[in-house]
Amino acid sequence: MHLKKAVIGGFLLTSTCAFPNHDGNDAQGLPYLHPRLRTIRSNTGASISFTEASKAGICETTPGVKRYSGYINLSRDAHMFFMFFEARQDPHNAPTTLWLGGGPGSDSLNAAFKGKPTENLTEYWTTQAAAKVDWDAVQAFYGALPKLNPRLKSRHFNLWTVSNGGHYGPTFFRYFYDQNTKIINGKLRGQPLAFDALGIINGAIDTGIEQTGDLACARSLEDVEYILDLPVRVTLMYGDADFVSNWLGGEAVSLAANYSNAAAF
Question: d(Cα 209, Cα 54) in Å, to the nearest integer?
Fold first, then answer.
């Protein structure tokens, strides 16, 4: 199930979740919101309830770096817990980076925040459905950014992931890019972004090429090939200490990819 933490801009961690109402019924709604949380409305129709975590000295301790945490409320029964860290250097012009944790076993903080997954199980087990939820959250975040901090101007966007994120990271990036193209061409309403890079660390991209077994997992090489022909950068980072997703598999994937500059690579 694609419940994960994510990173934006300076840095944003999110975890998809839904919560039961406090009246005891099965309907889902917002969790209890502390009075200190401030709520702002995004121009997408979603809202963000947050507090400035930097005042509590949580996670990031660099003087002057602002950080926020709270919920991106996509609908009555879909909420994204997030932590946003502004960049340490030139935060007003720094690009945005969305981090998708890997797994299973990745430290994505899911158990701490999720009550029930958003979407029903049949739908949410698909990567495409998860990509849509994350894209909606990214759009909601950018739509509310002028109210969160109007000095954050950059719309340059990166996506980085690790491990099993090699399965869904490329699919997410492709979906995001295609949706963004529709926005730029006036076919869809939203916040236009400037896509810069996709990064994958020790990624399990295509198990049929990288290793034996575990073939039930998605094969995302086609999405990687698609992205390699886009005007963006692609980085595959692998080490030798990861037993499953090491540099041997990464090299195999890089050599198997079929794209316009494959021969030159």
Answer: 44
Nearest in space to 202 (alpha carbons), one of 174, 252, 236, 228: 236
CB 208 within 8 A of CB 168: no
Q: What is the largest CA-CA distance in the chain?
A: 63
- The rounded distance, in Å, linking the Cα atoms of 53 and 244 is 36
Parse the chain into domains and list their residue ranges: 11-16+88-256
Q: In the 8-state DSSP scheme, what is residue 30?
A: P
Pairwise CA distance, residues 148 & 41, whole Å: 10
Helical packing angle, 221-228 and 247-256, nearest 10°:
60
pLDDT digits (tens, 9 = 90+) for 5-46: 444 445 555 554 544 444 444 444 555 566 778 899 998 999
Rounded to an integer, what distance in angstroms lies between the CA atom of residue 175 and that of residue 98? Answer: 14
Residue stretches of the chain with pLDDT short of 70: 1-34, 54-58, 103-125, 207-219, 242-244
Would you give the end-to-end CA distance of the chain in angstroms? 35
pTM score, whole prediction: 0.75
Q: What are phi and psi of 253, to 5 degrees?
A: -65, -45
What is the spatial distance between Cα 43 and Cα 46, in angstroms, rounded to a whole number? 7
Can you name the CATH fold of 11-16+88-256? Rossmann fold (3.40.50)
Q: Return d(Cα 97, Cα 77) in angstroms, integer.
A: 26
Q: Is 158 exposed, middle or buried (0-12, 13-18, 19+ CB in 10 A)?
A: buried
Q: What is the pLDDT of residue 158?
A: 92
CB 223 within 8 A of CB 170: yes
The residue written with tokens 């990166």 in the block is 158
Q: For 139-170, give the DSSP string.
A: HHHHHHHHHH-TT----EEEEEEETTHHHHHH
